[in-house]
Each structure stands twice: as structure tokens, then as C-alpha cells.
Design brief:
Blueprint: H1 2-19, H2 24-30, H3 35-40, E1 57-61, H4 65-73, E2 80-85, E3 89-91, H5 96-99, E4 110-112, H6 113-116, H7 119-122, E5 127-137, E6 142-147, E7 159-163, E8 166-169, E9 174-175, H8 183-186, H9 193-209, H10 217-223, E10 225-229, H11 233-253, E11 262-267, H12 277-289, E12 292-296, E13 299-302, E14 306-309, E15 314-316, E16 319-322, E17 326-327, H13 330-334, E18 345-347, E19 359-361, E20 366-368, H14 381-400, E21 425-430, E22 433-437, E23 448-451, H15 452-465, H16 469-485
Parallel strand pairs: 1-2, 1-8, 2-5, 8-19, 10-11, 10-16, 11-12, 18-20
Antiparallel strand pairs: 3-4, 5-6, 6-7, 9-17, 13-14, 14-15, 21-22, 22-23
Helix pairs in contact: 4-14
Length: 492
Amino acid sequence: MAWFRNLTKVSSIKSSLKNTHPFPLLASSLTHFSTEANKHNQAPPGLGPTRPNEKPRVVVLGTGWAGCRLMKGLDTNIYDVVCVSPRNHMVFTPLLASTCVGTLEFRSVAEPIGRIQPAISREPGSYFFLSNCTAIDTDNHLVHCQTVTDGVDSLDPWKFKISYDKLVIALGAQPLTFGIHGVEEHAIFLREVYHAQEIRRKLLLNLMLSDMPGISQEEKSRLLHCVVVGGGPTGVEFSGELSDFIMKDVRQRYAHVKDKIHVTLIEANEILSSFDDRLRQYATKQLTKSGVHLVRGIVKDVKAQKLILNDGTEVPYGLLVWSTGVGPSPLVNSLELPKSPGGRIGVDEWLRAPSLQDVFSIGDCSGFLESTGKPTLPALAQVAERQGKYMANLLNKIGKAGGGRANSANGVELGEPFVYRHLGSMATIGRYKALVDLRQSKESKGIALAGFTSWFIWRSAYLTRVISWRNRFYVAINWLTTFVFGRDISRI
């Protein structure tokens, strides 16, 4: 049996070599993918300060329009890029409403971060961490993070720290509920892909339940009543997509309930308040013609199956979509940083957090300080994208001037401050019609279009703005198949 003892000895040597990881830091990190390992090992130290022989590190918090445009433009020959976000993709929000009713598939509006900035997948010093930022220590150039896990039956989250040379806060914003009771429990927002998935599943479930034998007429009417709160572009576009879905697909495939399903859009003031008056009137007329019931009122309370307006009117609903604007997230509110009007992180003309070294903020979470004399910019995708592009150029310039390291940018010429020029607004209202408002502000004059031509411009513009050629192909094919075969009504 000597041969067996030799074989055992060789296999044990191979096993010990296999367990010796060539990258100790990675090996120690991987141990934390086991909850059992967490009980016996201390939390990993994370990423320490960069060494002199390493590239400076830019830490980006968030994967929205601003953060992704920044990462796309950063020169990875100068910097290592570390991104921290609870989602590993960017959402093309202008087309998100189309996914709720099957006009587009969900993957058509989601772009993986690794495709936007390939260095995150390839470079040894660049990473993406599926985590939430919990705190920022600006004195020590540290970001505190906690991993994201799925539900109570998954791994326990653990905490780690990341040292940064430059920090860009692009945390975005969260939906505003105005403190109204029941909104977060019963309404569905429309800002993420999982929101659109939830809306689609709920809508199709209600359609199928309403056709069941034995259901009362009152309950059937409630299930088939879709209520949208908020008359901004998102609320109007979703209402238009929903009315199209009802007129073209529900009437064909749910003939028993086709006359009972209806949509109500509730707005406290005028719908599309930032658009030209003529365009608003056109949108109101077209939405009404499409079967959308417009109600002016303020929601006072939201219950499980009905909402109550300020005049006491009760509105039963089967699906409630909440789209009333955005505001600062709890993390942004908790940060001990200068704030602009509205609670956003205050920045100067170069999008820097004043009195802090190497901290910048862009996107919906930032706003100009009152001392700059500039107004707070609207929470729009084009604002965030423009700021991300500007920030990438600014950091590249700082890095080339030798200011990429922590506390080393003093005296570096920053160049021109950030200036935003509004390119106009667009919104689709269903039935192959849209609005295009190319004025730079509400007070200025400019081109304002409505109708089929505007719809064609809307689709063409957004098709070219989709991040990658892969997703442009997906979007074009989805539009074509929907036009030829109708929308997909599978409840998956």
C-alpha cells in the first residue's frame, strides 16, 4: 500500500497549494461570502490609501446618469475607478415607463456598469462594490460601506471602508411622499427597473383576477382602476403608455373587462407645468381623448385599496403609481456637509463641496450654494449627464496637472466653471403623439411642437441617447415587434 500513501501525500500537497491564494487581499475578501466565516473572522479592512507606485483612486458613489457619465469619461490611464452602488447597472429612465406595459423589455433600459467603464472589470485597482454607502469621513478620506444582500435568508451584510484620493457623490434622489400616510406601503414608484416589474406584474394580475367567476362588480371596478399621482413627465408618459395598452391590447385579449378598465391621473396643479401652455392644453386634450380621467386635487391619505383627497373624495384603486417628484435621500440628509436650498449637497461653480478637500457632488443630490448666486438646477437626466461629463473632464485635467493624489490639488488651475444650458424637454402622451419643447426656460421663446412629428423626434432622440449599441438594437427590435405583434402580456 506504499503507492496509496504516496498518492495521498501528493494529493495533500496539491490541496495545500490550491488553498494558497496568489492574491491574499482577494482571498481574505472572498472568505466573507460565507456567513460561517464571518463568525470567526474580522471584517476585511477594505481598500487602504493608494501607494506612491499606484494610480490615484476616484471613488464614485452611485450609478445614475451623473455617476455613469463620469465613469465613462474618466481617463483610466490616470486614475483607478471604484464605484459603490446598490445596483450594478444604469437605468435609462426616459424609456422606463414603456417597460411597464410590455412596449419594451426590461433589459433594454438597463446598461451594466462593466460595459460603461470596462476598466472596472479589467484593471487590478478598479472595482465595483454592490454596497450602500453608510457614512463619509472627509477628514480621513474614507467612505464607510455595507454590502447589499437579498432578503433575510441570504448572507449577513458586512461593513468595510474605502480610502479615496477623489470622491464624487452622485447618490441621486428618492421619490417625495410629502409625509403622506400610506404612500410607501401601498403605492409603487417608477424610478428603478424593479419598480417597473412590480407595476407590470400587478397590472396583469388585476386584469386576470377581474375575470374570475364570482367577483362582485364593485371589486372588479376597483381592480381595473389604475391611478397615477403626479402630472409631471413621468406620470403623463406612464398614463399615455397605459392608455395605449388598454386601447390596443386589453381590448383584444381581455374582451370581458375591456369596458371597465380605466386610468385616472391626479395632479395638484397643471400637468406638465414646465412645458409651453399650448403644449399643456394639447396634452390635456389628447389624454382625455385616450380615456385618461384628469383630476385636480391633493392626496391626503393612502389606504390599502383607496386613497382620500383633500376634499374628502375617496378614490378606489387596484394599481397606484406615485410620481410626484424627488428629494434628498436619508443618507444625503445625514451627511454633515454644506447644503443648498432644498436639502441637496451644496457645491460651488466647479461642483466641489466647499471647505472640503477632494470632495465633489453631481446629479440630483447636489445643488449650487446660495453664495454662488446660481439657481438650483432641476432634477433632470440631461442636467446630471452634463455634470458627469464636466466632472470627468475636470478630474482628468487635475490628474494630468499632478493633482490626482489626496490633498494635492491646491493651486491646480480648474478652468471654466460648470454652466448648464437647457436643451429642451420632451414627453410622449400615447397614440403616436408627443410634445417637444425646445425653449431654454419657461419665460423664453423657442420651438414648441406636438403631434406625430414630435413623437418621431422623441423616439429618434432617445434611440440615439441609449448608452450602448447593444441596447439601441434591443430598443429598436422591441419597438418593431410591439408594432407588428402587440405588447407582451406574459406575467413572468
